[in-house]
Hints:
This protein is mainly α and 387 residues long. It folds into two domains: 23-191, no CATH class; 193-387, no CATH class. Helix content is 84%, strand content 0%. The protein is built from 16 helices and no strands. The longest helix has 28 residues, at 50-77. It is globular, with a radius of gyration of 21 Å.
Amino acid sequence: xxxxxxxxxxxxxxxxxxxxxxxxxxxxxxxxxxxxxxxxxxxxxxxxxxxxxxxxxxxxxxxxxxxxxxxxxxxxxxxxxxxxxxxxxxxxxxxxxxxxxxxxxxxxxxxxxxxxxxxxxxxxxxxxxxxxxxxxxxxxxxxxxxxxxxxxxxxxxxxxxxxxxxxxxxxxxxxxxxxxxxxxxxxxxxxxxxxxxxxxxxxxxxxxxxxxxxxxxxxxxxxxxxxxxxxxxxxxxxxxxxxxxxxxxxxxxxxxxxxxxxxxxxxxxxxxxxxxxxxxxxxxxxxxxxxxxxxxxxxxxxxxxxxxxxxxxxxxxxxxxxxxxxxxxxxxxxxxxxxxxxxxxxxxxxxxxxxxxxxxxxxxxxxxxxxxxxxxxxxxxxxxxxx
Length: 387
C-alpha cells in the first residue's frame, strides 16, 4: 500500500510538472528585458572599441544574471498570481530605467543604472522571501542567494559613484561575486520544474535571435544590391543559429533535465542554463552588432572589433552549444568545435575583405555546418525529434 501511494504521489508530481508552462506575464516581463539587449548592441555600435566591447559584455552579464534570477523565481512560484504578479509588474519599471541607462552605464548614467539595477535585484529577493514563508528549505536557498546578490548589487551602486579605475574594479568584483557565489553556494534544496525552466530559456534565445533580425532593419540606411544581399545573409546566419539549437539540442537539454533526480537536476539547471546559455546569448548579441556594422559598410573593410564580433559571435555560440553537450551528454560536438575554430581564425581575415564578403564567409560556415549535421546525423536526429 505504501509503495502504491508513493507511486501515485510521484505520478501526481510529474503531472504537475508537465502542466507548468511559461505564463503570459513572464513573456511580458521578457519584452522589457529584450529592450535591454537591444541597448547593449547600441551601446557597442556607437563606439566600437575593444574597451567598449568589454564593457558591453559586463553589462550583458549583469543583465543576464538578473533575468536568470527571475527565471528561477517563476520556476519556483509556478504561477503569476498574488505577490509574484505584483513583483513582476512592479520590477518592469526599474528594469526599463536600467535599460535606458545602458548606453551610458559606464559614463554619465552609471549611478542611475546602479540604483535601478539594485531595485531590480532587491525586489527579486523580496519576492523569494514571500514565497519561502513556511518553507525552511526554500528559506535556506534565499538566504544563500542574498549573501551574494545584495553585495554585488551594492557594488554596482558604488561603481556609479566612483570614477575611472575604481568603477571598473567595482564592476569586476560585482560580477565575480554574482557568478562565483552561485557556484560556491551550491544547489542544495533547490527545486526545478524541468519543463518550465527549459521553455523559459528556449524563449529567451528566440528573443535574442529576434533582436539580431531587428539589427538588420535598424542597420539598413539605404537599400541597394549589397545591402539586400547582406540582409539575406544575416537572416541565413540567424536561421542557422536557430537550427543548431532548436533542432535537437533544446529537446535533449530538457529531457536530460527532466530525467535527472532532484539534486542532479538543480546542478544541471544551473550549469546548462544559467551559466552556458549566457555565452549563447552573448554570441547572438555580438553577432547582431557585427551584422549592423556590416550593413552600414557593405563595400568597405570592417575594423577589428566589428570583424571579430561578426565571426567571433557565431564561434562563441557554437562553442557554448558544444560545451552544453559535454555537460549533459559527456561528449563534445566535434563539427561545431571545428566550425567555431574556423570562424575564430577568420576574424583577422575579415578585416582585409569587404564587409559583405566577410558576412558571406560566416554564412557559408554556419549553413555548411547545418547541412553537414543534417546529413551526417540524420538517423540520430530523427530518433531524438520523433521519439
